Amino acid sequence: MSTASEPAWREANRAMWDERVPIHAASAFYDHDAFLAGKDTVAGFQADEVGDVTGKRLVHLQCHMGQDTLSWARRGAARVVGLDFSAPAVEVARGLAGKLGYAAEQAAFVAADVYDARTALGGETFDVVYTGIGALCWLPDIERWAEVVASLVAPGGFLYLAEFHPLANVLDWGTGTRFERDYLSREPVVLDEPGTYVDFAAETEHNLSHEWNHAIGAVVSALAANGLRIEFLHEFDWTLFQHFGTLERDGGAFRQPEGTPRAPLMYSLKASRA
């Protein structure tokens, strides 16, 4: 629930996401029928890099409607917890968990801001702290995020992060060859656009949003400063959607045409606690 004291950016972002939840839940993009029938929504490279989660406790921060969270449960996690600041999204996630037959001890969903996760989760720690693609851009303070994340990682556990590359976020959306935004800026990109990525023509009322770009160095340094050891940092020359007009589909990915300069479009990292 938003309050009068809530920062304007968070209130606007929450209103934007809350309104889009029913659109997403009914969309072919998320295809809840296929998911309930067994579809796994965790990208293959993520499953490979995270490894076997059998018997592990996993928390998914900024989980939206919980499909990835529940996919990890299907992959053998003993307990999964999804957290999102959108109460309508959390209600959809709980509904999916119920339809799949998971008890609350196996799959729980919590409505809370990611910065409040430590308190909202009652101090619980996890073997795997997972954050899905397209999450970090909604947070203004990466240092505070890293502090929260580190507090959730149990001894011997790790954070796994997969994200759109911050360099790709500042290149022009037409060709991906020119800088159009400031890579190192801490100021938000403020947009006021109707629709949503599952239906650009959807009629929506709450269209104001605030997003931030976090440089790779800022992310890695923040995690290291909070006692996590970087196990790997991988950069990929492909992405999962038509980020630039020049990208060409290659199976389930999109890449720059053969012979053109390549830039990193996505990245992943693993950071562990001893």
UniProtKB/TrEMBL annotation:
<keyword id="KW-0489">Methyltransferase</keyword>
<dbReference type="GO" id="GO:0032259">
    <property type="term" value="P:methylation"/>
</dbReference>
<dbReference type="InterPro" id="IPR041698">
    <property type="entry name" value="Methyltransf_25"/>
</dbReference>
<dbReference type="GO" id="GO:0008168">
    <property type="term" value="F:methyltransferase activity"/>
</dbReference>
<protein>
    <submittedName>
        <fullName>Methyltransferase domain-containing protein</fullName>
    </submittedName>
</protein>
<dbReference type="InterPro" id="IPR029063">
    <property type="entry name" value="SAM-dependent_MTases_sf"/>
</dbReference>
<feature type="domain" description="Methyltransferase">
    <location>
        <begin position="62"/>
        <end position="157"/>
    </location>
</feature>
<dbReference type="Pfam" id="PF13649">
    <property type="entry name" value="Methyltransf_25"/>
</dbReference>
<keyword id="KW-0808">Transferase</keyword>
